[in-house]
């Protein structure tokens, strides 16, 4: 910890943990902080999204379809890859958003065996509205770090994720 930097709850917690090497203590404190930051981000996002009547899992599916670009459709397999949930999980999530009128299932005109999931106009409108709020919330919550510090942290975390998960394919 640098001189003059206020202590946080992790510092207090680390004071209570039996002796570890400096490397172990640093890794442990970083792991605690990463979990706490992720939890705070998720909690705040859930609170903000509740005003729109939308859950994080719904946002994830809307996001996958929105990122696909016009006509905002993906196969169930592509959704499975994008969302990293089971096929049953994708089916359940699609059904939930279909009941809300945000997505529709249709047969792929090029391969009648495939089902495509697409955003409805209502779903696209909802996605745009909610993603604007999500971005504002993330920006606000992370504004304690300068843009340069955010870029450095982003680069460091990217290196860590590549080491843990491997490089992403295209």
From TrEMBL:
InterPro entries the record matches: HTH_MarR-typ, MarR/SlyA-like, WH-like_DNA-bd_sf, WH_DNA-bd_sf
Superkingdom of origin: Bacteria
Every HTH marR-type domain range: 27-162
Stretches that traverse the bilayer: none
Family annotation (SMART domains): HTH_MARR
Molecular function per GO: DNA-binding transcription factor activity
A biological-process GO annotation: response to stress
Pfam families per record: MarR_2
Protein name: MarR family transcriptional regulator
Organismal lineage: Bacteria, Bacillati, Actinomycetota, Actinomycetes, Pseudonocardiales
